[in-house]
Amino acid sequence: MPAGVETIGTGAFSGCEQLSIVNVPDSVTTINAYAFSGTALSGVYLSASISSLGDRAFEDLPQNSIIYADNDAVYNLLIEKNTDEWSRRYDSSKTALAVTNGGSFAADTQFTAGTLATPTKNGAIFEGWYDNADCTGVAVNTAEAGKTYYAKWLDLGVADVSLEYRQTKTF
Q1: SS3 state at 129
Q2: Using one digit for the tens of pLDDT, what is the confidence trace for 99-110?
Q3: How many Å separate Cα 143 from the centre of its chain?
Q4: Contacts 24+ apart (CB under 8 A), 119-127
Q5: Is 14 helix (H, G, I), strand (E, B) or coil?
Q6: How far apart are CA 101 and CA 124, in angstroms?
Q7: Where does residue 30 rank: exposed (0-12), middle (13-18), buried (19+ CB within 10 A)?
């Protein structure tokens, strides 16, 4: 999908059973109803720019597919109305959610159903996926439909980085 696209129209890719990879550019703010329903997407990342999601936008994805939300605002759009079968955004019996907490993925990332992909974040080191928002306990690598996972980051401050060049060190 080209950069600059702001809206993905109603049913734009609906029923495209061979569509298994899509890179939703940061320019997209709106994904309308049924946009990706019935596709073969095993994973898709939604950046912080997403401000509107239509009903059933990610309905009927493959079993153990994962929708990655950049932040809580995007996550809240996904779970909004998810108890109503006709206006939900995704099918929680087939799909898991993962909140990257500001992390993102390279455009060529290949997502695998049931396996949590490793995001990147400028100025931070990824410490793993957790099944609770506090990111406590044991990190997990696999995802189950109906569950939500959260990325844990170690933010690097200036004091955490040192540089050495020709026997001169800075901290």
Answers
A1: strand
A2: 999 999 998 899
A3: 13
A4: 119/68, 119/151, 121/153, 123/155, 123/156, 124/153, 124/154, 124/155, 124/156, 125/153, 125/154, 125/156, 126/151, 126/152, 126/153, 127/152, 127/153, 127/154
A5: coil
A6: 11
A7: middle
pLDDT at 22 over 60: yes
Tokens of 113: 């159903």
Evaluate whether 139 touches 128 at the Cβ level (below 8 Å). Answer: yes
Q: Six-digit token pair at 72?
A: 């809580």
Structure tokens at 166: 């020709």
- Picking from 138, 131, 133, 79, the residue whose alpha carbon sits closest to that of residue 101 is 133
Q: How many CB atoms lie within 10 A of CB 13?
A: 17
Residue type, 85: E
